[in-house]
Design goal:
This protein is α+β, with helices and mostly antiparallel strands and 350 residues long. Helices cover 33% and strands 21% of the residues. The chain contains eleven helices and twelve strands. The strands form two sheets. Strands 4, 5, 6, 7, 8, 9, 10, 11 and 12 form a nine-stranded antiparallel β-sheet that branches. A hairpin with a 5-residue loop joins β8 and β9. The radius of gyration is 23 Å and the shape is globular. The chain starts with a helix and ends with a strand.
Length: 350
């Protein structure tokens, strides 16, 4: 029979190992559990899992405590490296590329608020609509050959923050001096421009009939999607791969989501910020299609894409060139577009 001291020592060893394991648990495991608890069915999207914070529970607690004490700035190098953040904008050429993706002269935001598709302008400033950028619902037809725009995600790879850390960080224009201090961003620097631009996008008032939220954790995105769609049975549509982009493709099978009925969606667009940040908005009255993309010569499937048609196109009313390209006018037609790589479209599960 084992002696009591030895038994207590064994129990202590087991207990200490259990505590250590819980502290070392990754955000991936936590996120899977969060999904399974808050969503009725379906597996956690691999897209979200791949962008979960790499911080362990112990690291999250440490950085949350530092942020709570306004001491994170002194540990910013460790924080950025451990959490996979963008805290250095690199060389002058790298900074120029970042700014071009953010607010570059050849890009104009399509909506006054949230839509992340863009229009190119020529050297005279005249706005041009890229072929295939917008289309009508009647164009989403098996057998049609369509040009696919350059929807490739060119933003730097970053990770979400755990909610426990994100909730401790300031995020508003009024807190900009504090945010600059945390990330060591000097005024008028490239990083400062990034901070101000994304906060301005997130603080714009939503279009009538919409709701919006900027989220910096996967948990917050899941919660916003569930609350906005009014159900825990949700799924996220993402761009699976970029094959076929920037080329002409043949449309294969076309599936209407929700049997073609008008539906509410939650669209989440990536914003450039030190950590992964998404601007999500609830949009009523849409048609959503899942479309197979085929090689127009071999007719082999190369990818699939999600198209969304906004039946109430009021959000595009400030861009008459969109309706001119569609041969129509504001209020008289739907506006459709494909999803961009890096964005998510949340819908209620069928």
């Amino acid at each position: 029979m084992q002696k009591l001291p030895s038994l207590f020592a064994s129990l202590a060893l087991i207990l200490s190992f259990s505590v250590f394991s819980s502290w070392a648990i990754s955000s991936n495991s936590y996120l899977v559990n969060y999904w399974n608890t808050h969503v009725y069915k379906g597996a956690l999207p691999e897209f979200l899992l791949s962008r979960a914070s790499p911080l362990t529970t112990a690291e999250s607690v440490t950085f949350a405590q530092l942020a709570n004490r306004n001491a994170l700035s002194s540990h910013i190098d460790s924080f950025c490296a451990s959490a996979n953040l963008l805290c250095s904008t690199g060389s002058a050429s790298s900074q120029a590329e970042l700014l071009d993706e953010l607010i570059g002269t050849e890009k104009l935001s399509l909506r006054s608020s949230k839509n992340d598709n863009s229009l190119a302008s020529d050297k005279h400033g005249e706005v041009k609509v890229e072929p295939g950028l917008f289309f009508r619902a009647k164009d989403i037809k098996t057998g049609n050959v369509v040009p696919m725009p350059d929807y490739i995600d060119k933003l730097p790879k970053r990770s979400f923050l755990p909610r426990t850390v994100a909730s401790k960080l300031p995020f508003s224009s009024s807190k900009l001096p504090e945010i600059r201090k945390i990330f060591h961003a000097t005024e008028h620097s490239t990083l400062d421009t990034i901070l101000k631009h994304s906060m301005r996008m997130c603080e714009q008032a939503p279009i009538a009939g919409e709701a919006q939220s900027c989220v910096s954790s996967a948990e917050d995105m899941i919660d916003f999607a569930v609350s906005s769609l009014g159900t825990k049975a949700v799924e996220a549509k993402v761009v699976e791969n970029v094959k076929g982009l920037k080329t002409n493709v043949l449309l294969g099978d076309v599936k209407k989501i929700k049997s073609g009925q008008a539906t509410v969606v939650v669209s989440c667009h990536q914003r450039l910020y030190p950590y992964l940040l998404y601007q999500c908005h609830r949009i009523p009255n849409n048609h959503v299609y899942q479309v197979d993309l085929l090689d127009q010569h071999t007719k082999a499937k190369i990818s699939s894409a999600t198209a969304i048609c906004h039946l109430d196109a009021a959000e595009f009313s400030s861009h008459p060139e969109v309706f001119t390209a569609l041969g129509s006018a504001p209020g008289k037609t739907e506006v459709c577009h494909f999803m961009k790589e890096g964005d998510l479209l949340w819908v209620a599960s069928e």
